[in-house]
């Protein structure tokens, strides 16, 4: 297993795109507290504001870092097919399950580390502009930020699973952007139409929508006055994690069965 | 030593590899021949567990997928450009080496060996096909393996490169390694291979040494030139030989050994100006062996229109 981990680490760190994506993700996430610092210095540092600044706007619906890390997840598997490297990879490391496990572990570790760095940078920005970061290590901000880290991790793993499932990059990119930004938003929107109110009980099972509740500071409200009866933070997280697990399990099973 | 038994692969209605069994011995270069679409690449992928099918291939007694750090035992080159375009060639090899406990020193060594030392830090997207093949061979040699499996390694190489590859493979075989190499360049196989595995439409056509293949799949003929060719033709046919007339007036005799032809000329008191045998090339043997098993057959070229009188002025 150590050989597989070494391989995957080398694969990840010898790609220039990894550094670009991490760099852009960190900058985009840091831009949110910078904008707050420049425009909202009179705001009270309430928990919602602190969490939003430190997670780089992710809980407001713009999970910059998660999206860029998800692209790294897609590349972890999709690139192997796009550039035909799956053949040398499997002749260097023919134990397929070991390879996938190594990819999941290395990409997960990188995501957790990058998210932690991003939160540290963002907290530093808040400190510079506002002179303090109140309640950073206390609930509800602490749980919301832990939820943000898990959200980013699950988002990345969904990307990794989609890249492996579709055996390429473009389809996985389309799904990972289309599903949270369009499909789920459309379903949530449609559920407010009286004749489609049967959609309401389904909303809490929409994976990316449920996933955002991992980052919530207060009670969930989708802004339309509808009570979607969401699960709590960790229950919603389990919905998102379950979705990632299904994608990865399907991709893993097919990877073992399919020709390379 | 490679031992392949009962290799079988089906894609829906098409049987790509049909119960192939063969051995590849160490110390010699074994060529893997077959027309386009005959199943050569699929067979190699089956052998390495890249494709799923039936049968078993053992590399010195072990299945490929059971080998820990396989590059140290089996080196492979399957596709011409299987690398990320922006990862440097050296990093590509370092990545594969890291999964097999091979150090950076060996990476630099193989890059020098294949002649890519000066461009090892460049991105392979700028590599020509020939350079890519050299990088592929460097990849195969990374773990200094005893067995090499190479799919069309001379594709894209210039004549100098082909010569280099041929010498390299023969040298590696002379060190006692097992070399299994596919190619559609029959002339190359004639110069490079000691043994052959020939397939057509997934079926085994021949497995043995190159000379045996030529003997089995070509009819050896005797060439006779004589001032009394017409009279001698009747004598030859009377003795049971088949005689055809060549374009230069020579007699092409089949079904009779050269010694018997000479003896007949002596007893018939016929003067001969040439008495020789003509051996078929590997290419002729290959065409004869696989002629009926080509997967993709092109139409015959259209004959140029006969020029009629007059001139066509623009």
UniProtKB/TrEMBL annotation, chain A:
What's in the keyword line of the UniProt record?
A: Membrane, Transmembrane, Transmembrane helix
List where the protein spans the membrane: 20-40, 60-78, 99-130, 145-166, 173-193, 234-255
Q: Does the keyword Transmembrane helix apply?
A: yes
In the UniProt record, does the keyword Zinc-finger occur? no
- Protein name listed in UniProt: ABC transporter permease
TrEMBL record, chain B:
SUPFAM superfamilies from the entry? P-loop containing nucleoside triphosphate hydrolases
Q: Does the keyword Nucleotide-binding apply?
A: yes
Cited InterPro entries: AAA+_ATPase, ABC_transporter-like_ATP-bd, ABC_transporter-like_CS, P-loop_NTPase
Q: Which Gene3D superfamilies match?
A: P-loop containing nucleotide triphosphate hydrolases (3.40.50.300)
Does this UniProt record's set of keywords contain Nucleotide-binding? yes
Query: Can you name this protein?
Result: ATP-binding cassette domain-containing protein
For molecular function, the Gene Ontology terms on record are: ATP binding; ATP hydrolysis activity
- Which keywords has UniProt assigned to this entry? ATP-binding, Nucleotide-binding, Transport
Family that this chain belongs to: Belongs to the ABC transporter superfamily.
The UniProt record lists the ABC transporter domain at: 2-226
SMART domains xref list? AAA
